[in-house]
């Protein structure tokens, strides 16, 4: 189903736009209320997902808490708390990127909506992926589910940026096209893909492969210095 939605969005959203040639599938929706409702819905989904992350931590506390040393309990569940912190940071970062994208949007079409819905699916799945990572640890499948969910989320954001580049009519009036930063989005998603491959191929590295995400900023600064 996910691949089907993505395929439809790719076929419709990446098709070159010719001024004056408006088809039903690409017709823009220009109502401000509709756009506001879409963004409000997306924000609500993110807020719920980021809240769900904490529920497994509540279950960590036993009913007879007084009989269990708190320090031992926290040490035993360190992996679960670490997964929570990382997933919280990832959802927050993904929302910030999405926020910067929709700040530049003035109208929308069905492919744009479909990719946004697919993006929310990845956000909703992240609490599940977090619990899988906490329970199954260094399992290749667990690593693949966890980093793979993040990778798909990043790919959706890159696709949204690509929509704005390919369809400037979706961009808000006065928005600077230079802010789209498609190369930067592609670099981040490519790094997620690399982290996924490394993490699954070498379970000893596993989730530490996500440290590769510090590379894109360094690469961009290096390229900027060379260009200057």
Automatic annotation (TrEMBL):
Domain of life: Bacteria
GO molecular function list: potassium channel activity; proton channel activity
Annotated membrane topology: Multi-pass membrane protein
Bilayer-crossing regions: 38-58, 110-129, 141-165, 186-215
Predominant location category: membrane
Entry keyword set: Ion channel, Ion transport, Membrane, Potassium, Potassium channel, Potassium transport, Transmembrane, Transmembrane helix, Transport
Reactions the enzyme catalyzes: K(+)(in) = K(+)(out)
A GO cellular-component term linked to this record: membrane
Subcellular location: Membrane
Entry similarity comment: Belongs to the TMEM175 family.
Protein name: Uncharacterized membrane protein
Organism: Geodermatophilus africanus
